[in-house]
DNA sequence: GTCTATACACAGATAGAC
DNA sequence: GTCTATCTGTGTATAGAC
């Protein structure tokens, strides 16, 4: 599978995400007309990502957000009760997208080797599709309030769990080498993160998302697949 | 080489770093007595890392810093001209430690395989020794002002360059496989970062810095070393 | 549903006593 | 060299007109 095929299968736009957020938070959002609310939420998220990417969420003022969205301060406060809640909405939604979609991807294959490939690539492709969400959730995870932090940590753990289980299962089937699979899973996650954290580097190097994902799979397989006897 | 041996060779304490900063910024620091200045700088850095780790530098107020250091607001401003300058001092010094020491480490060996091992492990060990510095410089790199950003970016690039050169050189000698070495170097850096960015995860898993570094070297060598003919 | 005007707390920074 | 007291701008958030 390459990125193009992936996009066809899992395509959902930023508009769709905004709609999801609207439906999940209909009680706290004071605007009731779906079309208006969804469109404005989309503008708000986009602006938060843009400003947040440059200087971080804490350094973004509500006036910055007002300027970037073209909405007034008063209007903004009809979409969330405060700056902290806005952060919470984005964080929890970002992580839940990630968790849900990766779970779904992992269920499309049975063979451990195929499953490992698809889960690794799927994560990279997903992070390409929703890069601002991934970048933001990673960089701003610290700022989330303790209540939500627990949920966020558990979602982060569950994505690593998926990888670990594949490695364990593959070892049992004699396909993968034995080893510290938790540690390997952590390393894989680190490399996946590289794509959305340092995206600018790979644009400069002219590395496409497909090349990146393939390279990553190559590294993991070189390490994990059992070598033929007599080989080093 | 393991972490213990590394520490013996490259040991310098947080006090030493504070002294270095003092000597480099003697003109802008209003306190002239070395002993006092160095001790207070050390306290300040420690406090910045502690608060910054929890909520980020932007969210840290000077009053937070005053409370944590036990120094008054007025005193703090005798050590730097403002919050922005303090950030700049920490950032540029953090990156320069990293660059200088890695350069030094890479010069201790000639054979590409040995050199690769030592540079990879050295980075991990260095980040263990100066973890707060590494974490902080990574997470707060965005907040640095444009003038300093250029310097920071170039230092980051140079550490990746060291890895790339080793891989290229090893390929020429027939020790390493051909491939996109820039890309591989980026992946290695990503895994190295994992250690200081997600340190809590590995403490929970009971993974030591030596185990982590060895695992990382294992992954890289499995991918990079030329396989014997007939092997996959 | 969106706007302008404004309340009020807190930020960064400084002056000047000790 | 360190402190307390204070200035001034900016931050988040709200009230109420349109």
**First-residue to last-residue Cα separation of chain A:** 30 Å
Query: Could you tell me the number of beta strands of chain A?
Result: 0
Q: Name the chain pair whose interface involves the most residues.
A: A-B, 39 and 39 residues
Give helix % range of chain A.
over 70%
Oligomeric state of this protein:
homodimer
Strand portion of chain A: under 5%
Query: Which of globular, elongated, flat, extended, rod-shaped describes the shape of chain A?
Result: elongated
Weakly predicted, low-confidence segments of chain A: none
CATH superfamily of the largest domain in chain A: Tetracycline Repressor, domain 2
Q: Examine the coordinates and then state which fold CATH places here, giving the name of the CATH topology of the largest domain in chain A.
A: Tetracycline Repressor, domain 2
Q: CATH class of the largest domain in chain A, please? A: Mainly Alpha
Order of helices and strands of chain A: HHHHHHHHHHHH
Number of domains of chain A: 2
Radius of gyration of chain A, rounded?
20 Å
Total number of helices of chain A:
12
Structural class by helix and strand composition of chain A: mainly alpha
The residue-averaged pLDDT of chain A reads: 95
